[in-house]
Every structure is written in C-alpha cells, then in structure tokens.
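SEQUENCE WITH STRUCTURE:
===
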Amino acid sequence: MCKNPAMGTRHRIAVLALPGVVAFDLGVPAQVFSAARDAHGRRHYEVHTCTPDGGPVRSAAGFSVLPEHDLTLLACADTVIVPGIHRDAIPGVPDVSDALRTAYARGARIMSICTGAFVLAAAGLLDDRPATTHWASAELFARRYPQVKLDPDVLFVDDGPVLTSAGVAAGIDLCLHVVRRDHGSEVANRAARKCVVPAWRDGGQSQFIERPLPVLGDATTGPTRAWALEHLDQPLDLTRLAGYARMSVRTFTRRFREETGLSPGRWLLRERIEHARRLLESTELPIDRVAAQCGLGSGASLRQHLHASVGVSPAAYRRTFRTTS
C-alpha cells in the first residue's frame, strides 16, 4: 500500500529526471496530463518529479532541475515516465534499473520519451518488445540493445504496460495517446486544445527525419483539409479535393504530401477512422450509421479499417473506450 500522501488519490504519475535530462521532454508529461480534465474541470492525474537521490540534476539545456522526491516516488506511482537524456549523458545513466523493474513488477505502467528508451532497455524492460526512440540515436540503440525490436520509423509504440516514443513532440503524441486510452477522445481532445497541439497523430506515422520544409508559395492545402473534415460523409476523391483547392491533381498531391507527410488518400482514411472512434465513444449510433457518417461506406468496411488501425472491432472498441463522464 502506498503511503506517500504527496501522490494524492488521482492516477499517480512519477517523472524520473536523470542527469542530462532533455528539458522539453521533462516538461511534457506535467503539461499534457495536467491538462487532462473531465467536463467539469476536475483533473484525472497527479504528476510529480523525482531524481535518483532527490537532489538537483543538471539538464541538457544547462539549468538545474530541483525535484520534489527521490526514487521512493516510484513505489507509489501508477505510471512512471522517463524523459529523454542528452546523448552524451547516456553512458553515465545512474543505476535506477532496480526501481524501474520493481515498479513494473507491481503493475505500474512504464513510459519513455525519446532517449529515455535507453534507460528502460538498460533495465531489461524492453527485451523482446517493440520500441522506438529518436531516429538520430537509433543506430546506437540497436547496437547496444539488439534484443529490443526497435522500430525507428514511428512516433510511438504502445506495447501494453510499456510504451516508448520518438523525440521531442512525439512525447506529446504519446501522452495524449495515453490520456485517450485512459479516458477517451473527448478528454484527450480537450487536453490537446489546452496545449495548442494536434489532438491525434497515429503512432505508426513516420518520424520526420531531416525532411526540408517545403516552399509553399501563396497556396496551401490547409483550407482544403479543413473543408474535407467537415464533409467526411461525402465522396472525397482526389479530383474533388484538388478542385476545391483550385489546383491540378498533380500539384495538389505534391503540396499535400509536402505539408502533411502523407498522401491525400492516407490522410483522409486516417481522419475518417479518427472520426469513427469519436462517434463510437460519444454516441449510440449503430455501426453502419457510424460508417456512413465517416465516409467508410459499410459496417464491414469500418470493421476492417478499425481492426487494422487499433486491432479491435467497432463493438469491442466502444465497450472498451466509451466513457460515462
């Protein structure tokens, strides 16, 4: 039984700051999870920071982090998050493996952001698991931990009780994904709006690896994407999308991919699936009606696409993720 009163009675999150911690990564969990509230403004999570000995640690940005707790915080946490650490600090990670393994063994959810995956791997928590880390550190990670099923091309990996993300903004995606998994899309979307970030990016989406910014000129596909989101129940082929944007199909396709990293078809399918998920969570519409409102045609088509995306049927998804708040 946890007897640390500082952790409160909400879902308890311990953020472990190690020497060389990446400042952005350290701030992400508190920002996102503190923004996750119900419709009445009540928080769902309690977030606290610790270091191995309870003393200050130097961040990669050059300032020191003054923690609230030491490693004993992990004994009371429902979720433990290890933010990234500067690459030069990786060989000098303190020995926190026992505390992480103990937390995992008693059922805590374990997460890493960016190069925090090195810490989880050193504790053996990623052995034979799929995982990811920042693409720039992937080669080093693969050499050091060949037993991990590393996928350096995705934003985050959800492997049940152990979750890992790529660098920087992918940590936001992972935290929002966890909020969505815990409390549904409405709470996650509110948190995203509070943080002024996109509500959802699929974990399987590729990391943006040294992709130069496009030269957009006067026209972009942004207005067309906004219009398409309001008309998902209608046929939206490439010709219609390009026509709305007043571009040729070739120019529209090129600019769309430059701006989103996806083809129009893949982007549209992703948004339709996300809309279906919101409807499954927030309405009692029959499966066929959900499919029709999302532009996925039939219930059979929705089942196929949802299973491919999240691994469950629409009925199972509704039972699992429907919230009553």
Remarks:
- Residues 204-218 have pLDDT under 50 and may be disordered.
- The longest strand covers residues 11-16.
- The radius of gyration is 21 Å.
